[in-house]
Amino acid sequence: MLVGAALLGASCETPPGGRPTTEGELAAYVELVLPARIEIQRFLTKPVSFAGDGNADGLEVILAAYDAAGDLTKVVGTFHFELQTRRLSDRIGTRVAFWPVEINSNKAMILYRDPLSRFYDFPLELDRKPLPAGQYVLTAWLQLPTGRRLVDEYEFNYDGSGAAPLRS
Description:
By secondary structure, the protein is α+β, with helices and mostly antiparallel strands. The protein contains 3 helices and 9 strands; from the N terminus they run H-H-E-E-E-E-E-H-E-E-E-E. It folds into 2 domains: 1-33, no CATH class; 35-165, Immunoglobulin-like (Sandwich), CATH 2.60.40.1940. It is elongated, with a radius of gyration of 22 Å.
């Protein structure tokens, strides 16, 4: 009986399996669940008409975040989107627009994340409208709470022929 009590007491002090117990284990766990890469969905991201009149006055950016295992995951951090008139081969372009978007609450998660596709949907309205025909590079970067930064770029041409309305 005394041995059973000793074993029971010892088991109460042992942390449950899988629970990080050191700072290094916690850091490894955080890296495991945070996104390892982001990807702009090129076939879904496009100029759109916020006003519904066919003039491209913004972009709808569809983005996926993948964990270290390659699975879609949730995001906590700040996205920065920058639209430039340039080609990827050019080092310097002209900034057309810049949008910071913070994902730091359940409300923001619900606003930007589609639970069915598990993609993020960012409606980004332009200050200077409409978007003229041209060649553009959209850069998205995610600043994670750990200080790490993830980046993706998407080069596209817009012919100025009109834009679909923003999805509601």
